[in-house]
What we know:
This protein has helices spanning 15-26, 41-46, 48-67, 81-105, 157-160, 177-188, 208-221, 272-275, 311-326, 355-361, 375-379, 409-421, 426-430, 442-445, and strands spanning 6-11, 31-34, 108-111, 115-119, 122-125, 128-137, 169-173, 192-196, 224-226, 231-238, 241-246, 251-254, 256-259, 298-300, 340-342, 348-352, 365-373, 385-393, 399-405. By secondary structure, it is α/β, with parallel strands linked by helices.
Amino acid sequence: MAKYDYDYFVIGAGSGGVRSSRIASGHGAKVGIAEEHRVGGTCVIRGCVPKKLLVIGSHFAEDLEDAARFGWNIEGKSFDWNCLRDNLLADVDRLEEAYKNTLSSHDVALHEARATLEDAHTLNVGGRTITADKILIATGSRPGQLDCPGGDLAITSNDVFHLDRLPERVVIAGGGYIATEFAGIFNELGVDVTVVQRSDRILRGYDHSVVERLMHISTIKGIQFKYNSPFAKVERQDDDNLLITTENGEELEADLLLAAIGRPANVDGLGLEALGIEQKRNGAIKVDEGSRTNIDNIFAVGDVTDRVQLTPVAIREGHALADTLFGGKPWTVDHGCVPSAVFSHPPIASVGLTEGEARNTLGGVDVYTSDFRAMKNVLADRNERALYKLVVDSATGRLVGAHMIGPDAPEIMQGLAIAVKAGLTKQQIDETVAIHPTMAEEIVLMR
Ligand code: NDP
């Protein structure tokens, strides 16, 4: 008789947990997974996927406006929030089913219940005791809450996909990915948007000139930004009115407040402390490069470890772990050179070192930029310029970073990220023939 109920038990059926469980099962392990909410996790249920559908849906506002310059007469256009919301929620349902099917077709036993740790090999799963040889914690992260008085009056990105109606005025707390992306979505949909950031810049970590370009374009589009403005309190005035006071004494009224101030690790009540599982100061689980905690048979991947909080990274971490533990193919994830995107209007995409980082870490740096108006924007008479930047190590000629803002930047960046990851040189980029006429051809034409 087997010593444990499972060879591998995964807590959390999000991107990292689902990938790890099905790969482990494919390697012959007996695998169970527990999920207390919905299978698919943040990315599928209340993150990347529904957000991207809102980004696409809201961008039609610009496209329909521009269409007139291309000869289209679109009379009587109107927008129906409930239609977009219901369609995207239906797509989320479809994807959840697909994820469940993936688990069952890979013989992973799904427990739709909350799991907590009792000891290094024992879990409480919805009141039932389950034992496992190896345990993976893949519980992700949750939206941070404003900690000022009245902070609980703010909604989070979890709630935004379920709104009964669009607000007229939204205040967004924060200046990261979620704040920037939802500022763009709401603005495109005609909502009055104010982004209130506690510090002096948004999108920390992204290339300065690219972020400045986004600020410039967003301001022209009507998004308002307030900096160095930590929240002091939030008060409800009536059903449709919140009064937000910043520590500078400034008062803002809004009918919706969205808190987008980072995502702490989802660890509350898991039982980490009793087992002595080491955590970082922000609560995230400490792991080594093989995703192992300080307890030999307990592992963690994804947002709960706060290495790089991105779905594709969680997926790779989960995959690497399953291959290592059960497939006889040990490998680890390279957390450097991870490409990323902000789905603003227009979007930003980035990989590798920013110009600032390169100047601080390399001897000499060559920077190439292309500042241009996309063909469509020229004919549409839309005063919106794209900016591409390549950062090159002058000693080796290698491309060490690429940063861009402009239409389809994330789609273009995925290909360029291969060049940066592979360590191609600027000369090799230059030797590549352009595809004309495209925006992406700028990459091979920068001199
Ligand atoms: P981010 O970490 O991107 O940004 C958090 C923002 O909130 C920062 O501007 C920060 O300011 C501010 N902030 C932090 N704490 C407080 C506080 N207590 N009060 C007020 N402001 C505060 O967080 P998000 O919530 O936007 O996103 C969470 C994570 O989800 C991201 O790190 C990202 O990895 C992932 N994500 C990725 C997306 C993508 O790939 N396109 C989309 C959405 C999310 P300061 O700069 O001063 O610290």
